[in-house]
């Protein structure tokens, strides 16, 4: 199954946060990412996992 890679700007748009917030999530290892050349990319699965984790934490 092919995995879509998203840019930091695309993830920021999906989460309705700033680019800075996305980079902070990556830096704190709350959001998994990978580097392609000099570009940072995030899989859709990583975004979904982050949302699921935060939803579970908020419900607890």
Automatic annotation (TrEMBL):
Residues 5-51 form the Helix-turn-helix domain. It holds the Pfam family HTH_17. It comes from the Bacteria. This is Helix-turn-helix domain-containing protein.
